[in-house]
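[step 3/7] fold_predict: job queued, chain A
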Amino acid sequence: MPPPTQDQATKLRELVLDKNETMRSRITGMKSVAILSGKGGVGKSNLAVNLALALAGQGLRVALLDADLGLANIDILFGVVPKYNLGHVLRGEKELSEILFRVGERLTIIPGGAGLREMADLDEQRQHWMIDRLSFLENDTDVLLLDTSAGLHKNVLAFALASDLTVLVTTPEPTAIRDSYSVLKSLWQATKGDINVGLVVNMVSDRNEGEMVADRIISASGQFLGFKAPYLGCVLWDAALRDSVRKRRPLLLDNLDSVSVPYFKELAGKISESQNEVASGAPVLQRGSFLRRLVKQMFKREA
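[step 4/7] structure written:
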């Protein structure tokens, strides 16, 4: 008979495996989540990084795609220097597995770089070739997070339209609120209201402020668009988050006692719920492969 400590360790491992398997069973196939903002300076990339860590902490296999074509900075926030990006895959120089940068047991960074922009210039045959190159990602990943550029340029719109869920990040600043409404309006016009988007208010003083900001945006979109985006939650303003950027070490890696950590975990819980509904009860769009939708959207916007 093995000693008691070995029995306990075995049971603990079994419990962890069961928990992770249960969490993964909530998501059939890869769920794609695009993270957008109306303007820069709202903490979108920091939110994407810590949300990715929170999702991985729940037992999900997470890939974080740096989809900011102008100022890619996910690598800086993690303090790493990826050598390759999607451009190398597109040119046939590397396989996708060779450019992935693992930053945790269940979290991988996908450096986008110029490869994302170049995808829009592919002819149909090359599009299918690229999709085949990237297809294993959908079998190996539970949640794909896309940290996009600020604003709503044509490529950002393509990411949003291809994703199962769009998370729109704002802050209590009047300019951020105004720009968030503009993004909602553009998404609504592009899809005739058929888009699954939720609001997250970052850098709030408390939950009440987050709800007040969200209510302003929801009321305006309801009045002028006839469309009310659900409120997913908020994240407190946290000096430790600012310090984590300077240290190039994400908050959820080094400072789990920080006041904003529970808010990231709460958001992760909502996003990792059943693929058939988000916390708001709105259906998640199921329109086939994210990669096929993305290439189709990018090609359409260039046409």
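[step 5/7] annotate
The beta strands are 31-37, 62-67, 101-102, 107-111, 143-148, 165-170, 197-204, 231-236.
The first strand starts at residue 31 and ends at 37.
exit 0
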